[in-house]
Design a protein that fits this description.
single chain; 457 residues; 8-stranded antiparallel sheet; 6-stranded antiparallel sheet; 16 strands; binds flavin-adenine dinucleotide
């Protein structure tokens, strides 16, 4: 059976299941899928739609430079397919387990985002399962354009994407990495801005990101696609990628290794699993160093009562701080100073982004069209004698003060009122009323705030 037919059959079966749930007035419906990169606990769905089979790449069109793909396909699967055609999605999030549907609804980002914007800006069409079981095709021009522009940052609260068409870009087999080193954050952000402007102007397909190792050690990496390489490094096993940024000025990777450079060590979070110990890497690296395995280990630890009890009994009080926030470039230095002074987590991942198409307005994640933003990613915990959530709340306040925006994949502490002021209640509620008037899917605030009510699944 060809992949189009197979998709149509799966879609039909899912639609029947969704219609029955709707007819029987079920609410709190969620997805049953194999992977997740939500850091907060998933909200407790009363009924789950089994979408696990929607994991196929349907068609790659090398002439139109686009790919039709089922929404629960992981980027690992998608990249493996597109590489065979010498191309890649214009934006590929760093972790292999992120799915295309998750990245679209959860505003995925990567080092090509300074040029192509966030993942959702690379999508040209999507098929969405609505609350009543109807399935609609949305594009930027058709009758469902409001939904097309509202799915990003809706986290499945307006409908679930089943299939999408994504923009592809041609690639070269290798990248040449140049790591620039800075000791002042002001210089750092001005060079970052300049570099992004230059590369955008040249319409280059370079990749740009950076890492802050300390207030006096900041690195900026530009990865330039090249046809040949004198050598290639390997950060999949015995050596981690991030120390090489500090240690080297130049490096070469195959394009595939570049795309997944952060996966093997989950950026640097593999240290929490002992995987930055050479012996552990040597013995267990081949089995453990993959974001899918880290997630499994983390979920096991989080749900295991014995581990929880031991942690409470024998460890000091800590607050987990796992966040990605976007700050306009003119306030980036101020935000970094705040992180150093008030939060104290290191390293910090830096990824520039800018809206790709100034004509398009994404309703639930609007960005100033003329502004370069800096994504700060910081994922760790810190000792705390403060009330639970103290440091995460400080971050939320600071992001607002600096006209930034916070991704919602992790813990959210805003009150409902504050949240809706920031995330445009008027627009959201109009769309919710239109596409899910019976609240079959939880609304956005309920989804992102559920972790504070201790909900799990
Ligand atoms: C430690 C950490 C680091 C991260 N780093 C990055 C990063 O570097 N770059 C990056 O881009 N992102 C990053 N993320 C965020 C990640 O991209 C988002 O959380 C994304 O939504 C995860 O996609 P997923 O496929 O795992 O979806 P899930 O975790 O399964 O779902 C995420 C949300 O999207 C909704 N959803 C899932 N599939 C669909 C669908 N088909 N249609 C509609 N809604 C759907 C779900 O209901 C849920 O609310 C990071 C997350 C973590 C925890």
């Amino acid at each position: 059976m060809d992949k189009h037919t197979s998709y149509e059959q799966k879609k039909h079966r899912l639609q029947q299941a969704a219609k029955i749930l709707f007819k029987n007035k079920h609410t709190r419906i969620g997805l049953h899928k194999n992977t997740s990169n939500l850091f907060r606990n998933r909200h407790l769905a009363d009924q789950r739609l089994d979408v696990r089979a929607f994991n196929q790449v349907i068609h790659i069109d090398r002439t139109a430079m686009q790919v039709e793909v089922e929404a629960m396909t992981t980027y690992e699967t998608l990249v493996a397919e597109t590489l065979r055609y010498h191309c890649l999605p214009a934006v590929v999030p760093e972790l292999k387990t992120i799915t295309v549907g998750g990245a679209l609804s959860g505003v995925g980002i990567e080092s090509s985002s300074y040029r192509y914007g966030l993942v959702h800006e690379t999508v040209t069409s999507m098929e969405v399962l609505l609350a009543d079981g109807e399935i609609v095709t949305c594009t930027a021009e058709n009758a469902f354009q409001d939904l097309f522009f509202a799915i990003p940052n809706a986290y499945g609260s307006l409908g679930y994407v089943l299939k999408l068409t994504l923009k592809l870009i041609p690639i070269k087999p290798f990248v040449q990495l140049t790591h620039q080193h800075f000791s002042e954050q002001i210089n750092y952000f001005s060079v970052l801005e300049e570099t992004c402007a230059q590369q955008r102007q040249q319409q280059s397909d370079c990749y740009i990101d950076g890492v802050v190792f300390s207030a006096k050690q900041l690195c900026l990496t530009v990865a330039k696609p090249v046809a040949t390489a004198p050598y290639t490094s390997n950060y999949r096993y015995l050596h981690a990628y991030y120390p090489s940024i500090k240690a080297k000025n130049k490096d070469y990777l195959s394009i595939k290794d570049y795309i997944w450079r952060w996966d093997a060590d989950w950026f640097w979070c593999s240290k929490n699993f002992g995987m930055q110990n050479f012996l552990m890497r040597l013995l267990l690296g081949k089995f453990i160093m993959h974001s899918a395995v880290y997630w499994k280990l983390m979920r096991f630890a989080r749900n295991n009562r014995c581990i929880q009890w031991l942690e409470k009994k024998f460890t000091v009080r800590k607050e987990t701080i796992i966040q990605d926030v976007e700050i306009p470039i003119q306030h980036a230095a101020a935000f970094l100073t705040f992180l150093h002074n008030s939060i104290g987590i290191l390293p910090i991942w830096i990824c520039p982004l800018q809206a790709y198409n100034p004509q398009q307005h994404f309703l639930l994640y609007p960005l100033d069209k003329n502004t370069l933003y800096v994504n700060f990613g910081f994922w760790d915990s810190r000792l705390s004698q403060q009330a639970a959530g103290h440091y995460n709340r400080l971050i939320e306040e600071q992001v607002n003060q600096l006209q930034g925006r916070k991704s919602l994949y992790s813990t959210v502490y805003y009150t409902e009122e504050a949240f809706w002021q920031l995330y445009d209640y008027a627009t959201y509620s109009t769309l919710k009323q239109k596409y899910d008037p019976h609240q079959v899917f939880d609304d956005l605030y309920t989804k992102v705030h559920g972790h504070l009510r201790g909900e799990k699944s």
